[in-house]
Write a structure and sequence with these properties.
By secondary structure, the chain is an alpha+beta fold. Strands 3-6-2-1-14-13 form a 6-stranded mixed beta sheet. The chain has a 6-stranded mixed beta sheet with strand order 7-8-9-10-12-11. The longest helix is centred in the middle third of the chain and has 18 residues. The protein contains 5 helices and 14 strands. The protein has a single domain, classed as Deoxyribonuclease I, Chain A (4-Layer Sandwich). It is globular.
């Protein structure tokens, strides 16, 4: 099972030319499930829908909410594309700097994969260099969302979490997520897929990318795929990982971030938990 996360850099830079490059890269790597951030919509066009259509993928994405009713798609949002049927489970607005709901969000989606239905969660955290504490609060909200939709049965499929976390692996916010420091919720931590099976530093934000060649901060790994733990051995265990969107097409690179694609084990789960 191939899962990709990618921040698409909204409508910044040469966004119309980048749209074609992004579509071509998705066709090249042919993922089963795609977690997207900074997805644009303008009332007439929806980037998620346009990217899904050529590959006949299903779409779930964030919307403006009025009570429990869906409004227009977020102009700057998150989305899940899937070759299998999808169902939105829950959308949450993440906290802003003063604790109020912000435009940043997390989206939980059920994907009816052939082996077993799985829950995937996509998110995009605060970007500012000095906002580690805010990202910790936002990740607490994301982990609580995961917890609401994961099965208590350890033989059930784990939750796959991905997105642009705007934090490096050694940061307080990511260390808490991966169990290297006090977890956000007891008994729930996550495997960093790149740390498990990726090669090299895995920088997704780098001045080598012409869309970020004047960056004010160093090369960093900001974009992640995670698999929740505890889980049974087998299904959704990381097998391999690679960066996506690195090579230009013509003179155009798809985004200011590189994407991360992972191959996850999709063999049937054992009937009883082993660990």
């Amino acid at each position: 099972m191939r899962i990709l996360t990618w921040n698409l850099w909204w409508r910044f830079g040469s966004w119309e030319a980048r749209q074609d490059v992004i579509a071509a890269e998705l066709a090249r790597v042919d993922p089963d499930v795609v977690l997207l951030q900074e997805v644009w919509a303008d009332g007439e066009r929806d980037q998620a829908v346009e990217l899904a259509a050529p590959n006949r993928m299903q779409v779930a994405r964030t919307h403006n909410l009025t009570g429990s009713r869906l409004g227009r798609p977020h102009e700057f949002g998150n989305a899940v594309l899937s070759r299998w049927p999808v169902r939105t489970l829950e959308q949450v607005a993440l906290s802003g700097p003063t604790g109020e709901p912000s435009h940043r969000s997390a989206l939980a989606v059920q994907v009816d994969a052939p082996t077993s239905p799985i829950v995937v969660v996509v998110t995009h955290l605060a970007w500012e260099y000095d906002k580690s504490e805010l990202r910790e609060q936002q990740l607490f909200e994301v982990v609580a969302l995961v917890d609401r939709h994961r099965s208590p049965d350890p033989t059930s499929p784990p939750v796959i979490l991905g997105g642009d976390f705007n934090a490096v692996p050694e940061s307080d916010e990511i260390r808490r997520l991966t169990g290297l420091s006090r977890p956000y919720l007891p008994g729930l931590v996550f495997t960093d897929v790149w740390d498990a099976v990726g090669d090299g530093p895995g920088h997704t934000w780098t001045r080598d990318n012409p869309n970020s060649d004047e960056a004010l901060w160093p090369r960093r790994r900001l974009d992640y795929l995670f698999v929740s733990w505890p889980r049974a051995k087998g299904f959704a265990n990381p097998v391999s990982a690679e960066l996506v969107g690195v090579e230009p097409r013509g003179a155009v690179v798809g985004s200011d971030h590189y994407g991360v694609m992972a191959e996850l084990d999709d063999r049937p789960l054992p009937e009883t938990a082993t660990e």
